[in-house]
Amino acid sequence: MNAIDLKERLRGGGMVFGCMLSAIGTTRFKSALAGSTLDYVVIDSEHGSRDRKEIQELSGMLREINITPIVRVPVPMAHWVAMALDAGAAGVLVPYCETVEEVRDTVGTAKWHPLKGEYLRRAIAEGIFPSARTQEYLANRRRESIVIIGIESEPAQRNLDAILDVGDIDGIFIGPNDMTTSLGIPDETKNPKYLDVIRDVVARAGARNVPVMVHHQNVEDSLAAIELGARFVLHSTDGRFMQGAMQDQFARLRQASARGDADAPARRDTIETV
Fold first, then answer.
1. Helix (H) or strand (E) holding 248
2. Of 99, 137, 139, 258, which shows the fewest CB atoms inside 10 Å?
């Protein structure tokens, strides 16, 4: 799905489905991803060590197979947003935002890049552009831009209404690891305290037709997020999918063999949650 179609589906109340690319760093996975049924992927450059060349190559490859490339930038700073867009991303996931200033600057860059400096500050603060022609040109150039704001702490949740007031936000992201840690219940994704946060964010964002994305690692938790109203579905990571498929299929082969499964190594989840 291309970025414009993805935005239209979400604006119409629909759902889209994607995963996080945390391990894949080569375009040789093109054929596997082409048959994946994914609408979009988030290329992780917050916790993943990716340079601009790698992001450019992955973004181009994903566009070729009609999967929308979104980049999770390292920090909520405008110049990282600009670099992701210059590398070919259709959108950005801006992590761990807590202040209106962070959100305004990153959203403004996502929507009006390559406007910079004083001109960008005026466009963000006052809606003033060098000319009506410039405003029309930039709006058309950035019409596919997707910007997702990370609400990953209690302070961010408290400030959500002011953050949403910035406008031009295409999605709100809840990072379970950061959010549960902030709540004092690290990785307790079934804790009612954490589930109440999802309900609250979905309700307040949904009132403005802004979809919510929650990044869970297992189907049970992702289904729970969907039941609570998450429509921008971000499920698991490339590395975890690979590990799970290997474990499942080799378990079946061992069980079907004459030797049985008695000597099989114990299954372990060795993928870091990010």
1. helix 238-256
2. 258
Q: Is residue 269 part of a domain?
A: no
Q: What is the pLDDT of residue 48?
A: 82
Q: In whole angstroms, what is the distance from residue 177 CA to residue 152 CA? A: 8
> Band of the pLDDT at 83, cuts 50, 70, 90?
very high
DSSP bridge pairs for 205: none
Name 163's Cβ contacts closer than 8 Å, sequence gap at least 6: 97, 100, 103, 149, 151, 156, 169
Provide mean pLDDT across the span 82-104. Answer: 96
Asked whether residue 208 is domain-assigned, the answer is yes
CA dist., res. 179 & res. 7, Å (int): 26
As for how many domains the chain has, the answer is 1
Average pLDDT, the chain: 93
The SS3 call for residue 247 is helix
pTM assigned to the model? 0.92
Q: Are 26 and 60 in contact (CB under 8 A)?
A: no
Which pair of tokens denotes residue 150? 């990370």
pLDDT at residue 264 greater than cutoff 80: no
DSSP letters, 180-231, are HHHTT-TT-TT-HHHHHHHHHHHHHHHTTT--EEEEESSHHHHHHHHHTT--
**Which residues, 6+ apart, have CB-to-CB distance to 4 below 8 Å?**
143, 144
For 244, the token pair is: 């799970």
Q: By residue range, what is the domain housing residue 171?
A: 3-256
